[in-house]
Specification:
Layout (H helix, E strand, L loop, with lengths): L2 E10 L1 E2 L5 E2 L1 H10 L8 E4 L15 E15 L2 E14 L1 H8 L5 E7 L9 E8 L37 H22 L20 H46 L23
Parallel strand pairs: 4-8
Antiparallel strand pairs: 1-6, 2-3, 5-6, 7-8
Length: 277
């Protein structure tokens, strides 16, 4: 279940550590324009987006909303006035686990200067990282303190899951059914008992427990047969779905990227190594 955080600073305007410059106007536009229904901004690991949803390149949450505030940073021993971009996040348990292990403690924005040909900026994603390019990004910290202390807190959400049959649950159910069957069978089995003291025979004899147990055992056997048939049918469907998914995944992984053209084989050069910027 996702946990919602307080606002955390995810970027500031001005020069970055890798020589780029973030326009303060773009940050203000990004905060103003952000709308999850228009285009969501998911949290990823180091700007990598996996295709299978499996660790470590699955999604780790979402940006909920954003705002900007004026901030002051010390750069080169001098105070600089900058625009800070803040985001409220919904984070997964996997992100919290990474954070508790001291990993991926900061953020890096994915800024689109001309989002959808609108001539305005937009944040389309957020990466967790240990080496942010922007100055002044706040360290992500998660605690269980109350809101009065300004900590990140959880908010409950409604959710439902379609769970696959559990092997443990199946074993427990089989044990229960076996025990019940043994109990009913025991009712019909003859028992060696110490002869009771003579008693007066009542006018109405007790019910025939052996006959009752036989009827119950017959009904139980029929019920067991139905349950076993349903279980086999369900297992067959699950095996079929798993097999189809495995085949589909293998096909996707070996399919080349659309419109990809291999680079022509180099015919040689002057031996000078060029930098890739």
């Amino acid at each position: 279940m996702a946990k919602k955080t307080k606002f955390v600073r995810i970027a500031t305007s001005g020069n970055t550590i890798d020589g780029r410059k973030i326009d303060p106007t773009m940050l203000k536009q990004a905060a103003k324009n952000f709308n999850r229904e228009t285009y969501p901004a998911r949290i990823n690991l180091e700007h990598f987006k996996g295709i299978t949803g499996q660790p470590p390149f699955q999604s780790y949450g979402d940006i909920v909303t954003m705002k900007t505030e004026d901030v002051t940073l010390q750069v080169g021993g001098k105070d600089e006035k900058r625009v800070g971009l803040y985001a409220e996040l919904e984070v997964s348990d996997d992100l919290i686990a990474l954070n508790k292990n001291g990993q991926k403690l900061y953020t890096s924005i994915e800024l689109y200067p001309n989002f959808a040909e609108s001539n305005e900026a937009y944040i389309g994603g957020l990466a967790i990282t240990d080496s942010p390019a922007s100055l002044g990004t706040e360290r992500l910290e998660f605690t269980a303190r109350a809101k009065a202390f300004g900590a990140f807190v959880s908010e409950p959400e409604e959710f439902s899951l379609d769970l696959e049959p559990s092997a443990v649950a199946t074993t427990e159910a089989e044990s229960f059914m076996t025990g019940l069957k043994n109990f009913i069978t025991g009712l019909a089995a003859p028992k060696i008992e110490t002869p009771p003291a003579p008693v007066v025979t009542p006018d109405t004899p007790p019910a025939d427990m052996a006959a009752f147990a036989a009827v119950m055992q017959q009904g139980f056997s029929q019920l067991t047969g139905v349950l076993e048939a349903q279980t086999k049918a369900t297992d067959a469907k699950i095996d079929k779905i798993t097999s189809e998914f495995t085949a589909f995944k293998a096909e996707v992984e070996k399919t080349p990227v659309s419109k990809y053209t291999p680079r022509p084989v180099s015919s040689g050069g002057d031996g000078v190594i060029m930098a890739d910027c």
